[in-house]
Design goal:
By secondary structure, the chain is an alpha/beta fold. The protein contains 19 helices and 14 strands. The strands form four sheets. Strands 2-1-3-4-5 form a five-stranded parallel β-sheet, with helices on both faces. A five-stranded parallel β-sheet has the order 7-8-11-6-12. The chain has a two-stranded antiparallel sheet with strand order 9-10. Helix 3 links the parallel strand 3 and strand 4.
Length: 457
């Protein structure tokens, strides 16, 4: 939050003294009457205002000051107004607080006390803003650990929220590092089974000869070294959720046994002939393309239909519009706290690098890069070099400047249309839905050279 302070005071001497009190770390503006104060409020949107009630044309009274206070609270109710009164005007201070002022300060001027009161008002405003950010952070989702600002990821989260309360078998697909296990845990946490066990097993990390006993358990003496009976992961998740990660790597021999369990909901331990009934919700995940595995004969089609009653396809980070920077900022905040460096921020070149990088390793790669940058950054400013990200050949765009964003998108669309049409101006203008004169004007505006390749229809 940029700290902006507006001082409303008609005495030039007091204006100067108060301004001197806040010469550092604040953007300070002054106003000496109601009209100037309201114009400054609309233009600069100050976070805190100090308001002297005695303003012209009633400098000896308080009517003008109270009228201005009322208008400020209507125009910008989140603004913190500190009413400045004389020692004999305590009733005015009480009335101002009742109207909605956040605090009051009594003359004569004491720089230390005034700074304390103003800083307290800024801190209150910052806490309220942080609270609002937390309220809206998840875009209406209740999914712990998921930072979602893009429409692509928000759609996944909303689908998950609908699926979680049911017992339907769910398949989560997506590239490595996109957070599939986090979503699986969210399915469990948002379900009626949340108080029971969440058992996870990585089908690709366990040797084939051990995976069956890990999943289904075994009886004493069923093989060499089986000195006592042991429950498998499926049994241990009874009443809860079983998460089968990287199910695309499950051996074909086990796929048949897993299919029987999904159909019958009973477990056959290795070395046992007595089926054990199990009540468990099954969630699976894979980074592989199941359709291709089926075509190659490496995955059973009937098992695929059993595990994919609902499929959540998690988009890669590069496919999530605007999420890269949002996730990076969230990681920087949490990692900064962990490493006792809470005031770090990304420089402009780092922001451009984050937005333009393809993130082949997705969020997992971003965690590593942000963690490294948190350690390596000199001072509070993290650069693209700290992140070990390549520089971008795309022009820098101020993403908070609507004109620059619009112009960048417009020039990019024109270039794409020209290349698609082989630099045929008539065809490009038809693709863009504009006239040829308009296209010529735009290519001149954005200095797009078409002379070498342009052809007339």
């Amino acid at each position: 939050m940029t700290r902006r302070l507006l001082i409303v005071e008609d005495d030039p001497g007091l204006q100067s003294q108060m301004r001197w009190c806040f010469s550092e770390n604040l953007e300070v503006t002054v106003a000496s009457d109601r009209d100037t104060a309201l114009a400054t409020l609309r233009r600069d949107e100050p976070t805190v205002i100090t308001l002297d009630l005695g303003l012209p044309p009633d400098p000896g009274g308080s009517t003008e000051g109270f009228a201005l206070l009322s208008e400020i609270l209507k125009l910008a109710p989140a603004t913190k107004v500190i009413v400045v009164t004389g020692r004999e005007d305590k009733e005015h201070a009480v009335k101002a607080i009742g109207m909605g002022a956040s605090d009051f300060y009594q003359k004569p001027l004491d720089a230390d006390i005034l700074r304390f009161v103003v800083n307290r008002a800024f801190r209150l405003a910052e806490l309220e803003q942080e609270n609002q950010c937390l309220v809206h952070q998840g875009n209406g989702t209740n999914i712990k650990g998921i930072v979602a600002a893009s429409p692509q990821m928000t759609a996944v989260c909303r689908t998950l929220e609908k699926v979680a309360p049911t017992d339907i078998t769910t398949l989560i697909t997506g590239e490595t590092g996109t957070g599939k296990e986090l979503l699986a845990r969210a399915v469990h946490d948002l379900s009626p089974r949340a108080k029971n066990a969440f058992a996870a097993i990585n089908c690709a990390a366990i040797p084939e000869n051990l995976l069956e006993s890990e999943l289904f358990g075994f009886e004493k003496g069923s093989f060499t070294g089986a000195t006592q009976a042991k429950k498998g992961k499926i049994e241990s998740a009874d009443g809860g959720t079983l998460f089968l990660d990287e199910i695309g790597d499950m051996p074909m021999a086990l796929q048949a046994k897993l299919l029987r369990f999904l159909q019958e909901r009973v477990v056959d331990r290795v070395g046992s002939v007595k089926p054990i009934p199990v009540d468990v919700r099954v969630v699976c995940a894979t980074h592989r393309t199941i359709g291709q595995l089926i075509a190659n004969g490496d995955f059973r089609e009937d098992l695929y239909y059993r595990i994919s009653e609902i499929t959540l396809d998690v988009p890669a980070l590069r496919e999530r519009d605007g999420d890269a920077l949002v996730v990076a900022q969230s990681l920087l905040k949490s990692l900064g706290k962990q490493m006792d460096r809470p005031n770090l921020f990304f420089s402009e070149d780092a922001i451009n690098a984050i937005n333009n990088y393809s993130w082949p390793g997705n969020v997992r790669e971003m965690i590593n890069k942000v963690k490294r940058a948190t350690i390596m950054a000199d001072g509070k400013r993290i650069t693209s070099e700290d992140l070990e990200l390549p520089g971008s050949d795309r022009p820098e765009v101020n993403h908070l400047n609507l004109r620059q964003v619009r112009e960048y998108a417009e020039s990019k669309a024109i270039l794409q249309a020209l290349r698609t049409s082989g630099f045929n101006m008539a065809q490009a203008s038809r693709l863009l839905g504009i006239t040829r004169p308009t296209l010529y004007n735009l290519t001149d505006k954005y200095k797009i050279d078409t002379s070498a390749n342009a052809t007339e229809a």
